[in-house]
Design a protein that fits this description.
By secondary structure, the protein is an alpha+beta fold. The protein is built from 7 helices and 15 strands. The two termini are 20 Å apart.
Length: 286
């Protein structure tokens, strides 16, 4: 039998980052695992140069975001028909078999005060214990193709897989935390969750925000989640400049892996979740 090996971080062969380009919205270059992503919204002009009202622009912007997400899901439709996502051009490698490797503890998952989509106070600690948790930092105004829409799309794929996998359904939790509390109110998150979550069954998927920027900042700092305002608030990819970070957390509230946009492969995330579940099974039998 093959000896288990320790694999630190994610297992994808190379990390790619998105940076602004003069000829395209974005381009890919080799960089650190945390990918800098920008995104915006605001009044503008139509194709004839006429000024559009903020209300109209907000409506158009919202529809564009939902359309982008719908296109992402449509592109993944054939993949979701399989038992697990298959190899593609973005992740042209075979992920390790669950349980054939180990995931070392990175650190204890930090706590913080949040609000759920029902406007009820909740501690982050309650969302990082009791189940294997996949935690993603997002904001709903993000339109970067490899940013929040991509991260949420991956979580959606994982959620769909849990519908037909009873072990994942009862042992895994997905959490999406907004770092844009001024805009992403509990009410907006509730509407957003209805648009992105295709299946009513499956594992738990929580959408949360914070009461204020002041309460959010300690959480972002503890998770090393960089977020800043863009100089141009009307940037087509959104008003916030941020890194993409998704965390794998075990039942005991310990971070076991951190994914960037270059390593956020749903096949790898599922393999990591199952590896932690197999680890628990082995420990319980000792």
């Amino acid at each position: 039998m093959r000896a288990a090996q320790t694999i630190r971080g994610a297992h994808a062969p190379r990390v790619l980052a998105m940076t602004p380009s003069s000829s395209r919205t974005s381009c890919f270059v080799d960089q650190q695992p945390d990918d800098e992503i920008s995104s915006g919204e605001g009044a503008g002009t139509d194709t004839r140069g006429r000024v559009c009202s903020p209300t109209l622009m907000h409506f158009v912007h919202t529809r564009v975001l939902y359309t982008l997400f719908a296109l992402y899901l449509a592109g993944s439709a054939m993949t979701l028909l399989a038992a697990e996502p298959s190899r593609d051009s973005d992740y042209d490698y075979d992920p390790p078999a669950p349980g054939s490797y180990s995931l070392p503890v990175v650190k204890v998952a930090p706590d913080g005060a949040l609000l759920d989509s029902n406007n009820k106070a909740i501690n982050l600690h309650d969302l990082t214990h009791g189940r294997v948790t996949v935690l993603s930092f997002i904001y709903t105004r993000c339109a970067a193709p490899k940013g929040c829409p991509y991260a949420t799309g991956v979580l959606n794929q994982i959620h769909d897989l849990s519908v037909d996998d009873k072990t994942l359904a009862k042992s895994m939790r997905l959490v999406s935390i907004s770092f844009d509390p001024e805009y992403d109110t509990p009410q907006r998150l509730a509407a957003y969750s209805e648009n992105v979550r295709e299946q009513g069954s499956g594992c738990e998927w929580r959408f949360v925000t914070s009461k204020s920027r002041a309460e959010l900042e300690p959480i972002l700092a503890a998770y090393d989640q960089a977020v800043d305002k863009r100089q141009n608030p009307a940037d087509p990819q959104g008003p916030l400049y941020h890194t993409l970070r998704v965390f794998l957390i075990d039942r005991e509230g310990r971070i076991r892996n951190i994914y960037s946009s270059g390593t956020l492969d749903p096949r790898l995330v599922v393999a990591d979740v199952k590896t932690l579940l197999l680890e628990e099974s082995r420990v319980s039998k000792q």
